[in-house]
Design brief:
heterodimer, A: 10 helices, about 0% strand, B: six-stranded mixed β-sheet
Amino acid sequence: MTNHVHREAETTSFRRSLSIQWRVVKALLMREIITRYGRHNIGFAWLFAEPMMFTVGVVILWSLFHDIGASHHISAVAYTLTGYSTVLVWRNTIGRCTLAVEPNQALLFHRNVRVIDLFLSRVILEIGGATLSMLVLMSLFMAAGVIDVPFNVMDMIIAWAMLAWYAAAMGFLIGGLTEFSELVERFWHPIAYFQLPVSGALAMASWLPANVRSVVLLFPTANCVELFRYGYFGDAVKPYYDLGYVAVVNLLLTWSGLAVVAAASRRVEPQ
Amino acid sequence: MIELREISKRYSTRAGKRTVIDQVSLRVAPGERVGILGRNGAGKSTLIRLISGSELPDSGKIVRSMSVSWPLAFSGGFQGSLTGLDNLRFVCRVYGASHQKALPFVEEFSELGEYLREPVKKYSSGMRARLAFAISMAIEFDCFLIDEVIAVGDARFHDKCNHELFDRRRDRAMILVSHDSHRIREVCTRACVLDAGRLYEFADIDHAFDYYESKQQTTT
């Protein structure tokens, strides 16, 4: 038999650690996909079919009942699509990170599986699902001629990446905190819900009075959505955003998120 | 070589910090079979988890210059909705081993037949244990960690496990924890006693047993 795990050096180089971590995260990803979506019917495609169904429903509701677009001379469908897709990124990613350790605790018996890997695999899966769902819907609507092609794709990519970074950092932070107290999980759901008005998805900053706008733009998501929409609609909208500010907030969140996960993993005992 | 350098582990309880492992040092050379005797609650399982690296010590250092297994024959960690094969794939991926290479052995050894491709939640406890042991043997390590005696399935399967572990892998290092001194005498080359978190090493295996027996008598 040749399935022998070898080990010669007493210390592990950074490159080797990185390759081990990627191997473990990949294994967790595969496991999570099969556990959550199974092999029946469309299987893995549920990863983005599920958020797609959500988005389509919201697009229909919003364009039927409060036609924001028309009063601002932009497509209601495109407006909702660019808004609700971003909500899924942060809401699903952070939501999936809450109490992520407990169901996988037994896996920590394998030395290379660390608490951070459990979070990483969930973050990657959720961001991947939300991104695929957005891409598929955008392409479908564009191909069907329902919405126009984007004005500046690069701005959209940058905005999406900053949003994904925020979601990952918050996922570590909130997910890590739920290991200290389950109350965090209970409080997170209403907080996430009431965060919608300041998430930038519902209204553009330029439509708001200046004092409200300054409050909304304190939230990194609002800044990202502004840029994302500017990338899509171009000069049809007037965006307000500060990427430098978002980067600083994201860095602080990443730092505290990783610190909380590190502290949480010291508390976790394999069963 | 595995080297534990004055490792300690404390757990928080309602009554405050409790020291479970207290400044334990141990060296295990390649091919050595070390038995660790201890009563229930002596900290055996904690020590095994610390050696395996699934838990980190609060102080001290563990140096591993040989590959170390996870604690055998551990049957947790199986996702009920995944098949036995999925669980094998997962473990192989984590250790960077090939599941194609491991499959024939696991099929043959676990005797699960068609059930290998059924969700683990349909397994009986005996089937789970067989799968766990087969997967444990599918990946090779320089040192195997064994928590308690492997009492898996019927006597025939038990013998099969013993043969696989103690005969076919006689060149490997092993650390076996148990409260059963007969078992350790059978398979180990050296024995230690874990008592209230402290590890006592003995040059001679019989001295370890004498000490363990005397400890048991004083408390019962």
